[in-house]
UniProtKB/TrEMBL annotation:
Keyword Lipid biosynthesis recorded: no
PROSITE patterns on file: SUBTILASE (PS51892), SUBTILASE_SER (PS00138)
Catalytic-site annotation from UniProt: D102 (charge relay system), H167 (charge relay system), S468 (charge relay system)
InterPro entries per UniProt: Peptidase_S8/S53_dom (IPR000209), Peptidase_S8/S53_dom_sf (IPR036852), Peptidase_S8_Ser-AS (IPR023828), Peptidase_S8_subtilisin-rel (IPR015500), Peptidases_S8_3 (IPR034197), S8pro/Inhibitor_I9 (IPR010259), S8pro/Inhibitor_I9_sf (IPR037045), SBT (IPR045051)
GO MF annotations in UniProt: serine-type endopeptidase activity
Transmembrane intervals: none
Limits of the Inhibitor I9 domain: 8-73
Keyword annotations from UniProtKB, A to Z: Hydrolase, Protease, Serine protease, Signal
UniProt-recorded name of the protein: Cucumisin
Length: 676
């Protein structure tokens, strides 16, 4: 319902009255689930489809949409970004508050130790929901638990902010965890390692959200887009995970232009799990294997040779080693060869000592399993398959995982959701990439490492991959920038992160900017960007006007009497965004004119020259090509005319404003869109 009503109005009474007018059976106590009344106006209620349609037509309603169950977009990484412990620090960094919207937190982790911390910031208005022996400190200054439907699973849920899953502890310690010396997972990766409504009112400075839906939604049908809009209005930048549905194009799910959308990239470390055969051959695979077979050779059998015929399964079933397809009497005590990648529940259930998978998918990230296991590529898998099927009494062993250098890093991992933007085609998404592969961080000590039967390993730190892990890296970087520039707007902080990002190469990511946006995050440089592309609430409202949104909806969202007119309708190409995108239908050329304004935050007296990077087929003209400043905070405007012959694909270049000290870089992407 947009902004909070002015004056002393009982929102709960207002909501109940509205519901009485649409609910045919009378408003029962369980119809109204939750009221949002601290930072914006709205409620959650149990309604039929017809009742929701009636409510949608009511005055004062911006949008009505179905509640969704969001997906989790599931040390060395900071050093890899050039962000070491010796980086320049801000005097007010201890006054910056990060709000994490996730599965909870494990307060006993050393990552949340408050030793040496001063008093809690005076601006903090939140509370600590203490329960189940959960307490806050000067590091975790507040915590709340939300369960909208009230459906508690006693085997899984804890009615407190305590993390029973691990995801929230991992993201929180990545974004703002304390320095922990020699943190590791069994010796691997040794190194140093209603919520929007409340978060805004409680006084957070940055919000980190590593969840999202499985696909993109229109801005007014997306609770995350709505929540982040209200956060932006209140001066809070939200860092969002892009999603884990890649490498499919247009799979990005968090894509509002007022939030920061983060893709997941690799770091210069990879985990290798070798397999040795009885003939002496050794093959390099991938996984996180902390089990030690001490080099002992075990009998080796193919899943196809051990079907559970008593249950009607054949070798065509058992070759994949799925649960219940294997004959336990044939598999028990042996290492198992499987034709497909799975969670290994089948081999564990059948009593295998270990498993070797051959996998056609890109294995540019790894998992732990409930037994010794290694994933081989198809070529090596074929050789091992031939060995196990043609050798009398074949044997094998699986070694513990070793850490090696990844010389190809950074590149965007295969699972990271890609652009182009399925909602607003001419806004480039994701915005940038950050480390999200094989990241070591804090973990809950409730679940076992793999949740596999027989796995009793409880770990304080875990190695996990996902855009969920990339998002808090960007959150931490945004927090770092905010600590130096506490008055900067969310758009200014986002601009600083994007325009200072390391350029990445399409050699490792064919989707280019649709995979990594502006490039790889570079927090140490982001505090001194030189120029910023700023934007505020009115700029995004005018953008939404230009996109054809209902003026009545926008007025409610902004709590203003502003209406969309020809003067306020801003075309997408004129939103003051730090990147440029233009699309056309396949086979056609396209020309667009972009208007931008930059604000000087570098040297008071400075002159920037436009440097254009344009491959064949892309023409970029900048006017003026030189801009000068006489003071900090001064603004200068320019236009960019881009012409492109895109055929059926994409083409990209860049505009760099260079004053000899700062290089303010913006990607320019033209592409053939298949979207209507």
């Amino acid at each position: 319902m947009g902004n909070l009503p002015k004056g002393k109005v009982s929102t709960s009474s207002l909501y109940t009255t509205m519901l009485r007018e649409v609910v045919s059976s009378g408003v029962e106590s369980d119809v109204l689930l939750y009221s949002y009344h601290r930072s914006f106006n709205g409620f959650a209620a149990k309604l039929t489809k017809d009742e929701a349609d009636k409510l949608r037509e009511k005055d004062g309603v911006v949008s009505v949409f179905l509640s969704q169950k969001m997906q989790l977009h599931t040390t060395r990484s900071w050093d890899f970004m050039g962000f070491s412990k010796k980086v320049l620090r801000s005097a007010i960094e201890s006054d910056i508050i990060v709000g994490m919207l996730d599965t909870g937190i494990w307060p006993e982790s050393q990552s949340f130790n408050d030793t040496g911390f001063g008093p809690i910031p005076k601006k903090w208005k939140g509370t600590c929901q203490s329960s189940d022996n959960f307490t806050c400190n000067k590091k975790i200054i507040g915590a709340k638990y939300y369960k909208a439907d009230g459906d508690y699973d006693p085997d899984y849920d804890i009615q407190s902010p305590r993390d029973s899953e691990g995801h929230g502890s991992h993201t929180s310690s990545t974004a703002a965890g304390a320095f922990v010396s020699k943190a590791s997972l069994y010796g691997l990766a040794k190194g140093t390692a209603r919520a929007f409504d409340d978060a805004i009112a409680d006084g957070v400075d940055i919000i980190s959200l590593s969840v999202g839906s499985s696909s993109a939604s229109d801005y007014f049908d997306d609770p995350i887009a709505i929540g982040t809009f209200h956060s932006m209005k209140n001066g809070i930048l939200t860092s969002n995970s892009a999603g884990n549905s890649g490498p499919v194009l247009s799979s990005i799910s968090n894509l509002s232009p007022w939030s920061l959308s983060v893709a997941a990239s690799t770091i210069d470390r990879k985990f290798v799990t070798n397999v040795k055969l009885g003939n002496g051959e050794i093959y390099e695979g991938t996984s996180i294997n902390t089990f030690d077979l001490d080099g002992k050779m075990y009998p080796f059998i193919a899943g196809a040779a051990a079907p559970n015929t008593s249950q009607g399964y054949t070798s065509e079933d058992s070759r994949y080693c799925d649960l219940e397809t294997l004959d336990k009497t044939l598999v028990e005590g042996k290492i198992l060869f499987c034709d497909y990648d799975s969670q290994a529940y089948g081999p564990v259930d059948a009593g295998a000592v270990g498993a070797v998978f051959q996998n056609s998918k890109r294995k540019d990230y790894v998992f732990p399993y409930g037994l010794p296991l290694s994933n081989l590529n198809l070529d090596d898998g074929r050789n091992v398959f031939n060995y196990v099927n043609t050798t009398e009494n074949p044997t094998a062993t699986i070694f513990k995982t070793q850490v090696e250098d990844n010389q190809f890093a950074p590149f965007v991992v295969s699972f990271s959701s890609r652009g182009p933007n399925p909602v607003t085609a001419d806004i480039l998404k994701p915005d940038l990439a950050a480390p999200g592969v094989d990241i070591l961080a804090a973990w809950s000590e409730i679940p076992t490492l793999t949740d596999t039967d027989g796995d009793t390993r409880i770990v304080p730190y875990n190695i996990v991959s996902g855009t969920s892990m990339a998002c808090p890296h960007a959150t931490g970087a945004a927090t770092y920038v905010k600590s130096f520039h506490p008055t900067w707007s969310p758009a200014a902080i986002k601009s600083a992160l994007m325009t200072t990002a390391f350029p990445m190469s399409s050699e490792n990511n064919l989707e280019a900017e649709f995979a990594y946006g502006a490039g790889h995050i570079n927090p140490a440089v982001a505090v001194r960007p030189g120029l910023i592309y700023d934007a505020g609430e009115i700029d995004f409202v005018n953008f939404l006007c230009g996109q054809g949104y209902n003026p009545k909806q926008l007025a409610l969202l902004t709590a203003s009497n502003s209406t969309c007119s020809e003067e306020t309708k801003v075309p997408v190409w004129d939103l003051n965004y730090p990147s440029f995108a233009l699309s056309t239908t396949p086979g056609n050329s396209v020309t667009r004119v972009f208007h931008r304004t930059v604000t000087n935050v570098g040297s008071a007296v400075s002159t920037y020259k436009a440097v254009v990077k344009a491959p064949s087929g892309l023409v970029i003209q900048v006017q003026p090509s030189v801009i000068s400043f006489k003071s900090l905070g001064q603004k200068q405007s320019y236009t960019v005319t881009v012409g492109a012959e895109v055929g059926n694909s994409m083409i990209s270049g860049a505009l760099i404003w260079d004053d000899g000290v700062h290089q303010v870089r913006s990607p320019i992407v033209a592409y053939a869109s298949l979207l209507e």
